[in-house]
Amino acid sequence: MNNTELTDIKSRVRSVIASALKVDVNLLFPENRFLEDLGVDSLDRITLLVMLENEFGRAIPDEDALNFTCVGEVEQYIARRDSEFQI
Hints:
Mean pLDDT: 91
CATH architecture: Orthogonal Bundle
Order of helices and strands: HHHHH
Number of helices: 5
Number of strands: 0
Number of domains: 1
CATH superfamily: ACP-like
Low-confidence stretches: none
Largest sheet: none
Shape: globular
Strand content: under 5%
Distance between the termini: 11 Å
């Protein structure tokens, strides 16, 4: 994966997170924690998961999604699974 593809993935992930949580995408950074910084509740998590799955066209196992604590972890997860997500 080259830098352009990685930048695109990060941008798409942040866009989905911003849309799901109704926050300004420009205020999202890799270190933003879902619970502490963004106030994500269980319903927000489900919404976010569904939106990520729709954006990238692939299911994200619940056991993986439950481990996401910050924006950067989601970006890394999607980037690692790049070939499976068929970006």
